[in-house]
């Protein structure tokens, strides 16, 4: 009897290990304001990233269809997304799965370490594998044909660098522009390697990236591009505001249009329908 009980216990432990992916998690702003309460999670097979996602992925996918995917690079190319978590949790709560570089953190480390741009593509590879694994919670619940790359400041340069990858369908650069610099592998040559629509979401002239974002916008001549500017804000935009402030909402307008096919959201960029975006200006071309 004792031997049988031990075998049953080992079997239960084995099953739990196979199916329990999340090994740590936290809730940002009570799960954010969207219809699918979000969590920030560490996955057992991806310890050096945070997955911002609806807590109940199954329910979200049932309501939305397969959930679009975002990979995210942090300001300073650092290994923590804690300074961006309000925006990321808010977007996740609207039916997205975001894989952000850096392990889960509850406080900001005094000296975050630097990361490589290739980590964004590693994140794409991981979530793609999860979508095909019958044991995974993401199995047939994420849309591997609807992947965005997104990043802030130096993470925006990482985003630009990987945006030539054919798996990336669209990109968002927050408070970022390459101009005449070389950063995280990206340079002005990267602008000619874009194959999908790209959006720049920046602060006004007090944003150190503002001039470079304007220059990138002028130089891009092969793909659709939009530049959205919140004039009164600087280099961190509204990342520290409740639910990520209007940076979250501007990003969602773009993502809903580009990845969820909600063409009504295009009016923000194409028709400058900014009634819900006071203080913003937008321009777009090649659409």
How would you describe this protein?
With 287 residues, this protein is α/β, with parallel strands linked by helices. It has a single domain, classed as Alpha/Beta hydrolase fold, catalytic domain (Rossmann fold, 3-Layer(aba) Sandwich). The chain is 31% helix and 23% strand. The chain is built from eight helices and ten strands. Strands 1-2-3-5-4-6-7-8-9-10 form a ten-stranded mixed sheet, sandwiched between helices. Helix 3 packs across helix 7. The chain is globular, with a radius of gyration of 19 Å. The termini are far apart. The N terminus is likely disordered. InterPro entries: AB_hydrolase_fold, PET_hydrolase/cutinase-like. Keywords: Hydrolase, Signal. It holds the Pfam family PETase. GO terms for molecular function: hydrolase activity. This is Alpha/beta hydrolase.
Keywords:
alpha/beta, 10 strands, 31% helix, Alpha/beta hydrolase, AB_hydrolase_fold
H/E element order = HEEEHEHEHEHEEHEHHE
Number of helices: 8
Here the CATH topology equals Rossmann fold
Cα shape: globular
The share of residues in helices is 25-40%
In total, the number of domains comes to 1
Distance between the termini: 71 Å
Task: Report the C-alpha radius of gyration, rounded.
Answer: 19 Å
Question: Could you state the CATH homologous superfamily?
Answer: Alpha/Beta hydrolase fold, catalytic domain
Strand content: 15-25%
Main β-sheet description:
10 strands, mixed
* Weakly predicted, low-confidence segments: 1-20
Largest sheet, order of strands side by side?
A: 1-2-3-5-4-6-7-8-9-10
What CATH architecture do you see? 3-Layer(aba) Sandwich
CATH classification class: Alpha Beta
Number of strands: 10
The SS-based structural class is alpha/beta
């Amino acid at each position: 009897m004792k031997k049988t009980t031990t075998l049953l216990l080992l079997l239960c432990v084995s099953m739990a290990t196979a199916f329990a992916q999340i090994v740590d998690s936290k809730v940002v702003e009570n799960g954010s304001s969207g219809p699918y309460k979000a969590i920030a999670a560490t996955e057992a097979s991806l310890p050096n990233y945070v997955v911002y996602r609806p807590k109940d992925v199954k329910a979200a996918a049932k309501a939305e269809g397969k959930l679009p995917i975002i990979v995210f690079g942090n300001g300073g190319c650092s290994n923590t997304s804690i300074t961006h978590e309000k925006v990321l949790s808010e977007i996740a709560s609207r039916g997205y799965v975001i894989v952000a570089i850096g392990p889960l953190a509850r406080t900001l480390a005094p000296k975050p370490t630097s990361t490589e741009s290739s980590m964004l593509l590693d994140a794409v590879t991981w979530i793609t594998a999860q979508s095909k694994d019958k044991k995974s919670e993401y199995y047939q619940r994420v849309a591997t044909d609807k992947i965005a790359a997104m990043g802030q400041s130096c993470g925006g340069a990482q985003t630009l660098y990987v945006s030539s990858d054919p798996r990336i369908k669209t990109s968002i650069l927050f408070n970022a522009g390459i101009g005449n610099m070389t950063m995280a592998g990206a340079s002005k040559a990267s602008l000619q390697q874009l194959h999908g629509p790209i959006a720049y979401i920046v602060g006004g002239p007090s944003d150190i990236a503002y001039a470079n974002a304007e220059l990138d916008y002028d130089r891009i001549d092969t793909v659709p591009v939009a530049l959205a500017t919140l004039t009164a804000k600087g280099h961190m935009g509204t990342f520290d505001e409740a639910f990520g402030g209007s940076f979250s909402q501007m990003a969602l307008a773009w993502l809903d249009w580009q990845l969820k096919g909600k063409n009504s959201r295009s009016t923000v960029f194409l028709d400058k329908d900014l009634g819900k975006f006071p203080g913003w200006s937008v321009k777009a071309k090649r659409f």
